[in-house]
Amino acid sequence: MQKEGDSRSGMDAGPRRRGRPRAFDRDEALAKAVRLFWARGFEATSIADLTSELGIGSPSLYAAFGSKEALYVEALERYVRDNEAYVWKEFRSAPTAREAVRALLSNSAAALTGCVADMPRGCMVTLSQVGSEGHETLGELVRGARAQTLERLLVRLEEGVAAGEIPASADCRALARFVQTAQAGMSILARDGASGAELQTVADISMQGWDAYLVATGEVSG
User: Fold this and answer.
1) What is the dihedral of CA 151, 117, 114, 91, to 10 degrees?
2) For each of the chain's 222 residues, which pLDDT tens digit applies?
3) Helical (H) or strand (E) element with 38
4) Nearest-angstrom CA–CA distance, 160 and 182
5) Three-state SS string across 184-205, please?
6) Which among 9, 32, 45, 75 is least buried, having the fewest CB atoms inside 10 angstroms?
7) What pTM does this model have?
8) Is 8 left (phi over 0), alpha (psi -120 to 50) or beta?
9) Hey, how many other C-beta atoms are within 10 angstroms of the C-beta on 68?
């Protein structure tokens, strides 16, 4: 029996309201934050910049990401995950150490200048100055990401030595630093407006330097 004052029975009361959904897509917001930090850097990107670009208020930003620093950490991880293959995929699959390095530099020339996708110029990791801006913990994270380039190169070059592609007398660490420096320089020049073709020339000349070094240290393969 329907109680006095009830306008409808329990059978036709309609669906219960669920919790209020997020007013924004967190993944999409993170992707926007990546581009903003990538283009401007950590210190120059304000909370106001982020809320404007992400289309949310500061309370929503803090609720979703915790802090500007925590958002930067997530953005850096997202940057690496989404963009690493552009420069490292062919490096990993190349049959020789020389081809791996050539692929790394050539693909960097294209990726860093936005020739392969709609992205800001330069490398977010290479260009980051967050450590020197007083954020030591974030700086350590960025330095660790930069160190991965050297470690990957060292591993590949040592494999080249084991395969007889690179003479045992070669200084693999110095050679890896040479390649890393060339790539880092490309990132700076890309930010300044250098074209993909210009940076490809840098890659080509760098490989000439590679060949000359191996000849000077007693190259064992043709």
Assistant:
1) 30
2) 444 444 444 444 444 444 444 567 899 999 999 999 999 999 999 999 999 999 999 999 999 999 999 999 999 999 999 999 999 999 999 999 999 999 999 999 999 999 988 999 999 999 999 888 889 999 999 999 999 999 999 999 999 999 999 999 999 999 999 999 999 999 999 999 999 999 999 999 999 999 999 999 974 444
3) helix 26-40
4) 20
5) HHHHHHHHCCCCHHHHHHHHHH
6) 9
7) 0.84
8) beta
9) 18
Q: How far is CA 4 from each of CA 7, 8, 11, 12, 14, rounded to the nearest angstrom?
A: 9, 10, 16, 16, 19
Residues in CB range of 72: below 8 A, 6 or more apart: 37, 42, 130, 138
Distance between CA atoms of 126 and 131, rounded to whole angstroms? 12
Residue carrying structure tokens 């070094």: 213
Per the listing, tokens 């490989």 go with 207
Q: pLDDT value at position 23?
A: 60
Burial, 19: exposed, middle or buried (Cβ in 10 Å; 0-12, 13-18, 19+)?
A: exposed
Compute the distance between CA of residue 184 and CA of residue 182 in angstroms, rounded to an integer.
6
Rounded (to 5) percent helix, strand, coil in the chain: 65, 0, 35
Report which of 212, 76, 91, 201 is spatially closest to residue 153, judged by C-alpha positions: 91
DSSP state for residue 91 in the 8-state scheme = H
